[in-house]
Amino acid sequence: MTSGGPLRIDADVAVIGSGFAGALTALCLRQTGRDVALVERGRHPRFAIGESSTPLAALLLEELADRYHLPGIRVFSKWGTWQRARPDVACGLKRGFSFYFHAPGKPFGDDPGHERQLLVAASPHDEIADAHWYRPDFDHALVREAEAAGAIHLDETRVDAVAEGDREVVLEATRNDRSLRIAARFLIDASGPRGCLHRLLGLGEAPLRWLPPTQGLYTHFRNVRLWHRPSAEEPPYPPDAAALHHVFPGGWIWALRFNNGITSAGAALTDEVAATVRAADGATAWARLLAGLPDVARQFENAEPVLPFIHSTKLGCRTRRVRSRRWALLPSAAGVIDPLLSTGFPLTLLGIGRLLDILETTDDGEARERALATYAEQTQEELDVTEQLVGALYATMTDPALFKRLALLYFAAASYSEAAWRLGRPGLAPGFMLHRDPRFGPELRACSALALQQPAGDERAALMRRIEAAIAPFDTAGLLDADRRHWYPVRAEDLLANAWKLGAGADDIARMLARCGFSRSVPTH
Ligand SMILES: Cc1cc2nc3c(=O)[nH]c(=O)nc-3n(C[C@H](O)[C@H](O)[C@H](O)COP(=O)(O)OP(=O)(O)OC[C@H]3O[C@@H](n4cnc5c(N)ncnc54)[C@H](O)[C@@H]3O)c2cc1C
User: Fold this and answer.
1) What share of the chain is helix, strand, coil (3-state, %, to 5)?
2) pLDDT classification of 3: cutoffs 50, 70, 90
3) Burial letters for 44-82: b for 16+ Cβ neighbours within 10 Å, e otherwise?
4) Atom 52, ligand 1: which residue's CA is nearest?
5) How far is the CA of 251 from the centre of ligand 1 (A)?
6) How far apart are the CA of 332 and the centre of ligand 1, in A?
7) Nearest CA to ligand 1 atom 27
8) Of the candidates 330, 440, 341, the residue with the CA atom closest to the CA atom of residue 387
9) Is the model's pLDDT at 523 over the cut of 70?
């Protein structure tokens, strides 16, 4: 410390933002002995949006926990272990993705073929299910772990300037009216979309190419009713114990139930729909939106917001530059794509793993330069492919059958990738959503591009067939089985029957399922 000058803090790595991603990154870095300064403008516990996890996110969290010897983090990868080890950290049971397609102004109508539904299970039972992360608790828990591991957590700290030098990167910051100078050899920006470096370094916003401009309107509620009412036919999992999606032309509503009585709910709307309901009005806009969706309105009839509505005027965004010699943005700071497929967490966790690899395996110099260039390319490519598919889903919200077929591209890639990783064969699943697979990747992009044109007649029929053909070699979950009538359970038989697509035998699959606790519904510890 220089007398009278700013307090100087030296670290190997500085991380800006102590959301789950920054806190987890700091924790992993501490496990490798790095000195870490974690800089946060707010104070925990605090509200954060982005709550629904997926099997791939859980797997990536598990892998990081194993790699960095973090059993206290590993418990968060599954509902069962989470409930037993950390009942103090609220979360929600997520057994799958539930989509219901609504026609504005009309009651929701079911039919025996479930033509207006898509239920895709992500787990066979609760014990190994995913969770919605109640971020005020979850992020705080991760921050505490990072602090306990020795990270210097500077909350309520404003970063005023960033300067990249030859040997270090320096943050000029202010905390409690005190000036700080934080010098680090590397800086990771985990401050979320349009975050700290985006603004301070003027990194520039890249235009969205496929996603229409959308707005967000959301909050946390109490007293949200269950959507699903008991019926003669048993769905593959309780549809409310899921990421519940109500889809309608020009937008969708999510509802994520936590185990503390709170439900996160909100809407992503095209600018057109947002203007129609005057989204900036908050609660009254929400009421206007629900007025056009009578059955959803019934679900929220007694719901009370526990926080003011947040209106985001521009939900999706991309940052042009995501790295330099001494800094990099996490994927969650590099862009946010509409949360329709809950892609934020897995993309972010992939990015965390890659940056940790780079910091562990390279020093300053050319090798690091090359690795960071590859990181930037992967980050942008994965945001591109996600944006393109989600953009295509927006284009087909008026056509549930095509929307559902397209969404199966995501579910096929996700379930195939998870199985490949769990079999110890990650090489079979290159890139997020298999986008670097020479067969699947080009088809994923081509089918998304065609759907964006909203084809009709023969062209639409040809696209439906093309998507099916793209999925078939990677379908390990019975996704093309018409008898399922848009309800897809997780079944061991499907994996066993399709083991050959993973270059595996029935024994490999059986061992993998046993390792994962697939058939175990009662915890043994
Ligand atoms: C409406 C919406 C819904 C979403 N739903 C999902 C979902 O269901 N599933 C999913 O996987 N993803 C979802 N996402 C994406 C998800 O929110 C992100 O992937 C996730 O929040 C990233 O976590 P993070 O820790 O990187 O960033 P954040 O959660 O944004 O945390 C950033 C932290 O940095 C701090 N910070 C910001 N600026 C500064 C600064 N200048 N100086 C210091 N600190 C700063 C903030 O206070 C905050 O604590 C959603 C996104 C949106 C917009």
Assistant:
1) 45, 20, 35
2) low
3) beeebbbbbbbbbbbbbbbbbbeebebebbbbbbbbbbb
4) 50
5) 21
6) 7
7) 192
8) 341
9) no
Q: Which pLDDT tens digit goes with each residue over 374-395?
A: 999 999 999 999 999 999 999 9
Q: How far is the CA of 476 from the centre of ligand 1 (A)?
A: 32
**Using CA atoms, how far apart are residues 492 and 486, in angstroms rounded to an integer?**
18
Ligand 1 site-directed mutation target among 15, 24, 25, 40, most atoms within 8 Å of CB: 40
Mean pLDDT computed over 469-482: 98
Ligand 1 centre to CA of 50 (Å) is 6
pLDDT greater than 60 at residue 126: yes
CB 99 within 8 A of CB 235: no
Q: How far is the CA of 503 from the centre of ligand 1 (A)?
A: 37
String of DSSP letters for 275-321: HHHTGGGTHHHHHHHHHTSHHHHHHTTT-EESS--EEES---EEES-
19 lines ligand 1 (CB under 6 A): yes
Average pLDDT of every residue of the chain: 96
Q: Among the atoms of ligand 1, which is closest to the Cα of residue 54? A: 11
Report d(CA 288, CA 276) in Å as an integer. Answer: 9
d(CA 332, CA 346): 10
Reported as half-sphere exposure (CB side, CA atoms, 13 A), residue 480 has a value of 16
Of all protein residues, whose CA lies closest to atom 25 belonging to ligand 1? 19
DSSP per residue over 306-359, as a string?
SS--EEES---EEES--B-SSEEE-HHHHEE--GGG--HHHHHHHHHHHHHHHH
Give the type of residue at 426: P
- Would the CB of 94 count as within 6 Å of ligand 1? no
User: Do 316 and 304 contact (CB within 8 A), yes or no?
Assistant: no
* pTM more than 0.85: yes
* Backbone region of residue 472 per phi and psi (left: phi > 0; alpha: psi in -120 to 50; beta: other values): alpha
User: How far apart are the C-alpha atoms of 525 and 518, rounded to whole Å?
Assistant: 15
Q: Which atom of ligand 1 is closest in space to residue 343's alpha carbon?
A: 11
Helices (H), 323-480: 331-334, 344-361, 366-395, 400-422, 440-452, 457-471
